[in-house]
Design goal:
By secondary structure, the protein is of the alpha+beta class. The chain has a single domain, classed as Ribosomal protein S6/Translation elongation factor EF1B (Alpha-Beta Plaits), CATH 3.30.70.60. The chain contains 2 helices and 4 strands. A 4-stranded antiparallel β-sheet has the order 2-3-1-4. The chain is globular. The termini are close together.
Amino acid sequence: MIKYEATYIVDPNLAEDTHNGLLERMSGTITELGGNVIDVKNMGRRRLTHEVKGKIEGIYICMRFDSSPQAEAELNRQLRLADEVLRGLIIRLN
């Protein structure tokens, strides 16, 4: 198992239920593929350094997890496809 950290920025204009659903969907993707979510932090609403998809603010979510490279690739795919996500980045911690 490899340790990863995923940080993604969510559209701040969406409802809280939508944010929670997205978090559950991303966590579920990792656990379904044999990974383990270690920690999830909602870093709150922050101003972006430049406009992204017409937004100047976003809600930052940071998630640490252990998984196989296949689960990381699937999470990356899910982040790119989700309309709620403005930007996403996954880094390997090992």
